[in-house]
Amino acid sequence: MNKGRPRGQAGEGASAEALPPLCAQRAFVVQFRSGSGPGQFAGRVEHIPSAQATHFGCVEELLAFLMRFLAEVRE
Q: What is the pLDDT of residues 58-72, one digit of tens each?
């Protein structure tokens, strides 16, 4: 939740100048299924720049998808 801060503004304890810029190649949307309780990770994740998406049923599958793209950005 935004809690009244303008979008993109640094949270408490961090100044905007101290943070590195956000990279568009690292943009994702993660959507969790309704009914997913604590410790349950099921839903859909999309890498915004490539529009590639997948469904996941556990946190390991979500992280594997994220890491695949984050590793490519580093190279």
A: 999 999 999 998 988
Q: Please provide residue 56's backbone torsions phi and psi, each rounded to the nearest 5 degrees.
A: -130, 150
Q: Distances in Å between the alpha carbon of 41 and those of 25, 28, 55, 56, 70?
A: 24, 16, 10, 8, 20
Nearest to 58 by CA among 34, 36, 74, 75: 36
Dist. CA 56–CA 19, nearest whole Å: 30
Instruction: Supply the pLDDT for residue 2.
Output: 47
Q: What percent of the chain has pLDDT over 90?
A: 47
